[in-house]
Amino acid sequence: MIDRSSSKNHRPALDLYYQHNLSNGQTLVLNAVGTYNYTNNTRLYRESREGIVLTDINNLVTGKKYSFIGEGIYEKTFGVNRLGAGLRHTQAFSDNTYTNGTTYTTEMGQAETFMYAEFKGKVENPIYVIAPS
Fold first, then answer.
1. Residues of the chain with confidence (pLDDT) below 70
2. Which pTM was predicted?
3. How far is CA 117 from the centre of its chain?
């Protein structure tokens, strides 16, 4: 097996972060991250017996991946307690090309958006309500 790859991997990324401290213990955070990955690999696999070539495979694989992650977070402190809420979106695309006599291309796209809330702290004398099922 001969690996003819020259380790062509490019992975630039850009991360933008912004935080603004508001009055009354409030904070707003915005974060955006974009990435791009490029790979290029060439491999030759040859198998022979007594001078007769049994297998001769020459593979070329190139791939591109793109991603974006964006997030916004709001936090409010109440003494020793903190309440936070956020919105997050992720988006990714990937395409790979495989060449070995015939060219095959694969593509993938994925996206996800969700909201969340978080409470951190201590509650004195909590009240529990149990709902019947």
1. 1-2, 4-8, 133
2. 0.69
3. 22
